[in-house]
Amino acid sequence: MSDTAYLELKNALASTRMEGYIVTKQTENDCTRLMRGEVSVAELVKEILSRPVKAG
Length: 56
Known about the structure:
56 residues; 3 helices; mainly alpha
């Protein structure tokens, strides 16, 4: 991923946080993998849905 794309991702995640959403390191990693083409949207959705839900 180019430096420009990484900066755009960081800006989008910052905007998301300002809107009141929680952005975890896992979220950032997922977005990075998606932007690098390491995973498709469908594959990532399946992964996310299969993750255990954390209580609390």
